[in-house]
């Protein structure tokens, strides 16, 4: 008797239950992996963009999770595949005839390359910070405030972290950044 391939993979409902049932450690692992992938791929602005793409791919059934595999491992591999595919397909070829004499207000390729490099460095630094402070709730809240462009009181209120703890986390983060020799802009 030949086994149906659909029995070897999780259904969309099982995928949804598995993903939404992940613990905080799994979320941190996925976030760190997304941060690293975004740091080397200029095609996603934030790790959350890549996480959302992978989540949609899994929930729509475009990507499947084998029953024999761990959900987090497959989720990370889906993110890796999406980031890799984005790099391959984002190259745009435009013929000279199609452009004609149109004026272009886009930045020069050199300016785009510099912006991409700076964005990649920033994403790398945020991923490094997330890894260094994986277990520090206050520092992660400060990083969230930075990434989401929110104030510390807003983040503290939404996460239930005291202002005193946030300030202590901000100081730990600032000292760590200084020890790395990075410029502390905030």
Mean pLDDT: 75
Query: How many E-type strands?
Result: 0
Number of helices: 9
* Secondary structural class: mainly alpha
What's the overall geometry? globular
Ranges with pLDDT <50 over ≥5 residues? 91-104
Strand content range: under 5%
Distance between the termini: 64 Å
CA radius of gyration: 20 Å
Oligomer: single chain
Strand count, sense and barrel status of the largest sheet are: none
Helical proportion, percent range: 55-70%
Name its key features.
186 residues, mainly alpha, 9 helices, globular
What does this structure look like?
The structure is a single chain. The protein has 186 residues and is mainly α. 67% of the residues lie in helices and 0% in strands. The protein has helices at 12-20, 24-40, 47-59, 71-89, 96-99, 109-132, 137-148, 152-159, 163-180. Helix 3 (47-59) crosses helix 4 and helix 7 crosses helix 9.
């Amino acid at each position: 008797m030949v086994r149906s391939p659909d029995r070897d993979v999780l259904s969309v409902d099982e995928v949804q239950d598995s993903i939404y049932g992940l613990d905080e450690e799994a979320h941190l692992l996925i976030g760190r992996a997304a941060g690293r992938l975004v740091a080397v791929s200029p095609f996603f602005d934030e790790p959350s963009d890549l996480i959302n793409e992978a989540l949609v791919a899994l929930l729509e059934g475009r990507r499947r999770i084998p029953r024999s595999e761990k959900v987090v491992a497959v989720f990370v591999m889906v993110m890796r595949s999406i980031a890799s595919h984005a790099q391959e397909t984002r190259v745009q070829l435009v013929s000279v005839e199609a452009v004609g004499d149109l004026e272009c207000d886009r930045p020069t390729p050199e300016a785009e390359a510099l912006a991409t490099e700076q964005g990649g460095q920033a994403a790398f630094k945020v991923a490094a910070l997330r890894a260094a402070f994986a277990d520090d709730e206050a520092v992660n809240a400060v990083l969230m405030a930075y990434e989401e462009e929110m104030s510390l009181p807003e983040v503290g209120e939404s996460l239930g972290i005291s202002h005193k703890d946030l300030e202590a986390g901000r100081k730990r983060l600032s000292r760590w950044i200084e020890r790395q020799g990075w410029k502390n802009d905030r």
